[in-house]
Amino acid sequence: MDGIVSLLTTPGIGQSIFVLALVITVGILLSKIKVGGFSLGVTWVLFSGILAGHLGLQIDPMVLSFVKESGMVLFIFGIGMIVGPGFFSTFKQGGVQLNLLSLLSIGLALLMTYLIFSLSCTPIDTMVGILAGAVTNTPSLGAAQEAAKGISGSISSDIGIGYALAYPVAILGLILTTGCLKWVLRVKVDEESQRIEDREKAQGKEALVYSIEVSNPSVYGLDIAHVKLLLDKHDFLVSRIMHKKTSEIEMAHPKSVIEEGDKIMVISEHHEMEMICAFIGHRIEMTDALWGKLDRRLISKRCLVTQGTVNGKSIEELKFRSIYHVNISRVLRAGVHLIGKPDLLLQTGDTVVLVGEEENVKRVEKILGNSVSTLKKPNLMVLSVVILIGILVGSIEFPLGNMPMPAKLGFSGGTLVVAILISNFGTRFRLNTHNTQSVNLMLKEFGITLFLACVGLSVGGSFVSKLLDGGYLWMAYAALIMLIPLWATCILGRYWLKLDYFTLLGYIAGNMTFAPALSLTPDASKNNIPAIKYATVYPLTMFLRVMLAQWMILLFA
Hints:
This protein has helices at 2-9, 13-30, 44-54, 61-83, 95-120, 124-134, 138-152, 157-184, 189-202, 224-230, 273-280, 288-294, 315-318, 320-324, 358-368, 372-376, 380-394, 410-425, 437-495, 501-511, 529-556, and strands spanning 207-214, 236-242, 249-251, 263-269, 281-284, 298-304, 327-333, 336-339, 351-357. It is an alpha+beta fold. The two termini are 48 Å apart.
């Protein structure tokens, strides 16, 4: 018993580890509690830390600061590597519209924060803490604390307390918003769901495999390269050809000639299919399996890209077609089927579909790696590189107008920027950026757990007194900052931008950078649109909230 008391009260490394482990364990146990199927999740660690701090448990301030900053960096790394690959692509296909709407919401939240700061005389660092909790954005809390420390040399506990008071208000606001949205906007969910389903079928973007019989006289005697030139505005790949005269099947290459009655296997996006079929001939029912039965010589096999020397090279650069007579017809990346175009860069973790003679396919398979065990190993190099460069970038100072001190991205912002850039462009420099999803999620969850535990411990001593002394007013501020921008942009998106209900559900989750919001209403599980739109809005919103939180303190402190 004395040993436990000593571990709780005697300062030291062992005591610090024990208290942190205790806070995290209690928080995780509390996270299992669900009300109406919903839980605060890892946020319970924050409140567990507050309780521990209120009861007098403390750890060495230097250790607390180190663990908190390290946890935030790990959390930001995980976020950056998860959302980074889709960061720039989100600006396509309606992403610009949604991100502009989110940008408006961020601007309104900042305006609300500034107005309350001006009228109530609440310190700006406290207001930014309330803002971080009101939009459920923990990284912006870390960025704000870092900026405040840079100005005054210390961190006011009011930042963390403001966040802790605002966060439950934001969760309640999300529950009310997602629950009432369809009633306020008068949405007929089933009808809207059916319209979206019909639209998605007509606008499929994933690679589709189908067969065509050549029946257009204008393409008789032309090689594949010439046919592709005539259809230059349409992306497609011809994988195999069955010649009518000989009944032989060959693997297609640019010089392959097609004649009347030949059958070809084509890979393209769904919306391109009708035009390609009309130009070459007519579509026939001939499955991938049937092609395999008709020709025992050519096989189709899936293969994992795990060899580091292949990472970042284009399909054309690998010369598999010319050297081994093997085609890469499709590439599966992050659940999406891509056409194996010559300029497509392969990445570690891709699954490619190889078509060719069995012995040649085996040779290519060895070059690509195809080792599942390799992918299961954590990639520590990309972790260390991102953190190293991220800290360097985050430490670069640059003057902005009349700010009391030069601005900088900070550890959080620098790591986020570098993680996004490396996850997008690392393969161009032959850097293996692949990590299993479980590794990235583990780092993300472990990092945020450490951070919240430290924040809770640091503010716990004064939390209750602050709650009783004006804390309810801070919660009211949080409600205004959360609800007004979110509802204003939802109404604008529905009636001006004509966004559908499911897109708005995803927008709400992404704008609040809070994935569990997708589970607050059963409507979000009717299709995958809310999840897609969440991923569309989340990266830029996360980036801006982290950057603007610290810059607001620098401007008005």
